[in-house]
Amino acid sequence: MERIYTILSLLKTKKQLSIEEICKRLYCSPATARRDIAKLTEMGTAMKIRGGVLLIEGTNFDYSANYRNSVCVREKEYICEIAADFIRPGMSLFLDSSSTAMRICPILSRIGSVTVLTNGMDTALLLNECDTVETYVTGGRLKKGTHTVLGEASDSLAGFRADLALIFCRGIDDDGAYDADIEQKTVKRQMMRNAKKTVLLCDSSKFGSVFFHKLTDFSDLEAVITDRKPPDSFLESVARTGCEVLYG
């Protein structure tokens, strides 16, 4: 996978690469380069073009579950350890379908006696293995490639109330947090409305990225948790809202 991420890093700079460029940069054969391009296409991060590969990007583009689950793993695990301070035995939680939500499952198992409602199939399956966690899944439509239940998922949340919503975003800047998918945003907003408190978990790679859909202002959040110190302008902006920022 290291070679795949190297190609993706190059694409984020150049947007488009030829098979010849990949071979020169990575010292690999054309056949290997084509296999890597096929993998990137399968992950939903790039598109195969004649003689090369093109980065898929845009403010309303959502990456595949396979890709999201494979990046910034250590950062996500670190963020979830900080988030554990907000969780106590006996609490009820909303978790969205993000890859970061999956990293908190072992922590919830350790805390014990927690009830969780999620629209993430991967998260639900992991929690189902935890004897001390009672797991509920929203109804709705399973979106292909994302392992996420959407559509009617927001409606099925109406009959539930939680102590805490742990939500995640695609991008964040001094003005708030953003998502790339309107249905994702709708489900997360419903979770926020039906929870006593909301904590946003966001790894540092998301800072400075703006997507099409505004998810939330900081005034609606109890805290923002990330893995390293954010820019000073961000800290100043959040401080004015009363929201707490926690980082490594």
Question: Describe it for me?
Answer:
The mean pLDDT is about 90. The chain has helices spanning about 1-15, 20-25, 30-45, 65-70, 75-85, 100-105, 105-110, 120-125, 155, 180-195, 230-240; strands at about 15-20, 45-50, 50-55, 90-95, 115-120, 135, 140-145, 150, 160-170, 170-175, 175-180, 195-200, 215, 225, 245. The chain is of the alpha/beta class and about 250 residues long.
Query: What percent of residues adopt helix (DSSP H or I)?
Result: 25-40%
From the coordinates shown, what is the CATH architecture of the largest domain?
3-Layer(aba) Sandwich
Count of helical segments? 11
SSE pattern, N- to C-terminal: HEHHEEHHEHHEHEEEHEEEHEEEHE
Report the radius of gyration as a whole number of Å.
19 Å
Form type = globular
Average pLDDT reading:
88
Measured by DSSP, the beta-strand proportion falls in 25-35%
Strands, count: 15
